[in-house]
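Duplicate of #3305? Posting structure anyway:
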């Protein structure tokens, strides 16, 4: 035999009730059905009592709405010929409710006893209507008021049931039923017949009490999800149903916020060894989650739950050390005020005792302890109790955790990597539960980070916020789309674009967006980089990466704020790296302090691993003697193709036609871009240089520099051909080659047009390639050389993508 319980969402409307009836019909061994009030009705009844006790006549409107809702359900569920009796019963019952509420209105008081009586009407109405609907649909059913069977003490609002006395009545009443018993959940009665309730969620407890009394094979609790999830799916999109968990695991999860089952429900079933199955009314074929039973699992972690808001109290002082009975006095004071403690932690030095309570009890708890220790506080042996609010508790639960060394490390690594500060830690000796107290604003981020680390360790998700959809940005988006499948299958990475913005529009979504969607959102979301950054920070998502694909001077000023929020920054934008030395140093300091990534490999050689190679040399303890480089694809092309018989001006013009130069070639010939790249390399080595300390030769003769237009520039450059031809002749006569050479050595950085011999590693450079040679203590006789394309949207975007992957890994 099984007993079934259907919650408010399962009986929230006529359609849902019909689904419930079909679920019952499909369970031939069903011995009883427990139902909650129609969805939202209990809240309305509570509001009804509150208004009446406050003298607000608006309660009459709620009564009218309740009548209309239940009458409408009857009309939709029961045929006209047979609905008269049900309508009459419901009307009579609602009259009783009206009389009770009117009494509250007159007395201006709603005692706990009266409140329980008012709240009982929700289940009484729904159970009677559902029983009548069952009969109307062709199978026998009988309305059963749980107050006839379940006996409790008189702790109104959260009554304790009497197991033996209740079991005897349950067995007798269920046996006497003339059809399938449709039982009111949530409510019970004292020994002298006064109505009580079993606490919010008490319908779960009702079915467990009945199941235990009848010694059933299984208890089924039907709701609107596929079972108990690994985490709250509203906060963790990747959460999935747990197929099986132990009673202890279920109690831990429910204690720390899992709303799928009312915590006291487990005890009656546990005592009789009866499994509890959680199922979905909207997906009845899904097997759901089973609590208890003989099935075992090898899963290390069962689930993660959290409490959204707690208060954290700290009792501290030197006067606690070595003083016996301090803890007893603290918790006795709390017990005397009926304050429940959620979590406790104490320093081994006995200098502090910390614990969590619900926020609405924080002030009462503080006063109770301060009063208990008023003499010690007056003598400054103890400090007044410190209360911290806006905190959450995250709890990782699993019986197999005790057998897995390092699991706690994975939890704290996930939190630390995402900048989540842990206020307190609690773990029992059984290692069934690891609980941490964190800031409430980090709750969602922490849940996702820990869930990914424990349940989706094979798949790492990163949230990308892209600024700039120009050539590099759009190429990056294309590469992300093309590589998505291979990144997922081969490297277990999920790179999700969560935000895009440019100078015109922005689009952001925690669920992820596409470039097409961002374009469609242009009119709805006008661009604002400050708003974009603030929304990104507000999302507070784990593994977030800010990608700046612009050349903006203003945007890098926000990097510090972004890094300080534990969001990594990836960029090909050189502005932040070539500004003031202090600004550069400050960003590196924040990067180290917050343990995030600030990656800019593409700032020097596009897709070439120049900065990464240099950093690896420095980190491994090598000594950098010098760095020589050709760092401009444009200048590389020019001097690889400038030869006798073709003027330098003609060579530059050809380079512009091929797309190698900026619209105004003077930007390339000035050497400023090479100087910035060289400054980055110098700073990465450790030289404390400002930009004006880098010596850069400007290749634009003064007359050409003064030209007002590009055509005029070419005319004047042609007039200065003798300058360049003389240098070319000098190089040819010596058997050498012209290169625009950048170098760093002994704290000095310079870039100038140079002649190199045939024995130089750059002599064979061709096309528009870049090249860098590192001469170090380890590479002293033959330098370490990195060579390849140093410009272009494809290689630059690929370098940015490589940096993004480096952040995630």
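Output from current build:
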């Amino acid at each position: 035999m099984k007993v079934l319980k259907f919650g408010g969402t399962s009986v929230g409307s006529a359609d849902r009730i019909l689904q419930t009836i079909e679920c019952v019909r499909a369970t031939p061994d069903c011995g009883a059905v427990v139902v909650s009030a129609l969805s939202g009705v209990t809240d309305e009844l509570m509001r009804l009592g509150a208004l009446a006790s406050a003298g607000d006549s608006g309660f009459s409107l709620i009564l009218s709405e309740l009548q209309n809702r239940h009458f409408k359900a009857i009309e939709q569920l029961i045929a006209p010929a047979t609905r008269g009796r049900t309508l009459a019963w419901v009307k009579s019952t609602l009259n009783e409710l009206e009389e009770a509420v009117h009494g509250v209105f007159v007395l201006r008081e709603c005692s706990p006893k009266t409140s329980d009586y008012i709240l009982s009407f929700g289940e009484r109405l729904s159970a009677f209507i559902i029983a009548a609907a069952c009969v109307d649909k062709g199978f026998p059913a009988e309305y059963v008021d749980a107050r006839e069977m379940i006996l409790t003490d008189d702790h109104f609002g959260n009554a304790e049931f009497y197991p033996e006395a209740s079991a005897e009545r349950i067995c007798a009443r269920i046996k006497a039923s003339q059809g399938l018993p449709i039982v009111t959940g949530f409510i019970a009665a004292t020994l002298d017949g006064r109505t009580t309730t079993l606490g919010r969620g008490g319908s779960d407890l009702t079915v467990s009490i009945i199941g235990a009394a009848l010694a059933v094979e299984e208890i089924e609790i039907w709701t609107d999800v596929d079972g108990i999830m690994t985490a709250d799916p509203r906060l963790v999109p990747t959460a999935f149903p747990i197929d099986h968990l132990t009673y202890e695991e279920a109690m831990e999860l429910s204690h720390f916020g899992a709303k799928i089952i009312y915590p006291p429900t487990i005890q009656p079933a546990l005592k009789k060894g009866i499994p509890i199955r959680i199922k979905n009314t909207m997906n009845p074929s899904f097997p759901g989650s089973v609590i208890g039973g003989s099935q075992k699992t090898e899963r290390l972690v069962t689930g993660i739950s959290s409490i959204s808001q707690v208060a954290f109290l700290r009792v501290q002082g030197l006067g606690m050390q070595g003083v016996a009975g301090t803890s007893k006095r603290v918790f006795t004071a709390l017990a005397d005020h009926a304050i429940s403690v959620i979590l406790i932690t104490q320093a081994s030095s006995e200098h502090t005792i910390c614990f969590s309570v619900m926020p609405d009890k924080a002030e009462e708890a503080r006063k109770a302890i301060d009063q208990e220790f008023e003499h010690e506080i007056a003598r400054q042996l103890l400090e007044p109790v410190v209360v911290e609010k806006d905190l959450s508790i995250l709890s990782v639960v699993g019986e197999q955790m005790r057998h897995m060394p390092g699991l706690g490390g994975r939890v704290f690594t996930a939190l630390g990597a995402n900048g989540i500060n842990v206020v307190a830690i609690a773990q029992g000796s059984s290692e069934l539960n690891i609980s941490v107290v964190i800031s409430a604003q980090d709750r969602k981020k922490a849940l996702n980070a820990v869930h990914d680390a424990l349940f989706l360790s094979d798949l790492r998700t990163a949230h990308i916020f892209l600024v700039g959809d120009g050539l590099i940005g759009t190429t990056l988006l294309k590469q992300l789309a093309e590589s998505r499948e291979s990144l997922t299958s081969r490297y277990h990475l999920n790179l999700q674009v969560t935000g895009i913005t440019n100078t015109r529009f922005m689009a952001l979504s925690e669920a992820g967006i596409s470039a097409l969607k961002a374009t469609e959102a242009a009119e709805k979301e006008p661009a604002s980089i400050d708003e974009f950054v603030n929304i990104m920070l507000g999302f507070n998502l784990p593994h977030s990466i800010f990608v700046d694909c612009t050349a903006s001077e203003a945007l890098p000023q926000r990097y510090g704020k972004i890094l300080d929020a534990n969001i990594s920054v990836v960029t090909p934008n050189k502005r932040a790296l070539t500004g003031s030395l202090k600004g550069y140093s400050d960003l590196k300091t924040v990067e180290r302090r917050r343990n995030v990534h600030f990656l800019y490999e593409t700032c020097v050689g596009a897709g070439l691993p120049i900065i990464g190679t240099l950093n690896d040399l420095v980190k491994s303890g090598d000594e950098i003697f010098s760095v020589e480089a050709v760092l401009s694809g444009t200048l590389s092309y020019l001097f690889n193709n400038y030869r006798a018989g073709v003027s330098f001006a003609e060579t530059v013009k050809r380079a512009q036609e091929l797309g190698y130069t900026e619209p105004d070639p003077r930007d390339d010939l000035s050497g400023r871009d090479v100087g910035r790249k060289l400054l980055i390399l110098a700073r990465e080595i450790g030289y404390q240089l400002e930009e004006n300390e880098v010596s850069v030769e400007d290749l634009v003769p003064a007359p050409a520099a003064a030209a007002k237009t590009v055509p005029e520039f070419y005319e004047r450059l042609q007039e200065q051909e003798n300058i360049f031809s003389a240098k070319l002749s000098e190089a040819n006569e010596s058997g050498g080659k012209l290169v625009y050479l950048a170098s760093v050595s002994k704290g000095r950085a310079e870039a100038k047009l140079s002649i190199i011999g045939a024995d130089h590693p750059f002599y064979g450079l061709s096309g528009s390639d870049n090249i860098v040679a590192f001469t170090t203590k380890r590479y002293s006789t033959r330098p370490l050389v990195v060579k390849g394309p140093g410009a272009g949207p494809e290689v630059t975007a690929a370098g940015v993508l490589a940096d993004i992957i480096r952040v995630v890994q």
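Confirmed duplicate; merging threads. The first strand starts at residue 2 and ends at 6. The mean pLDDT is 92.
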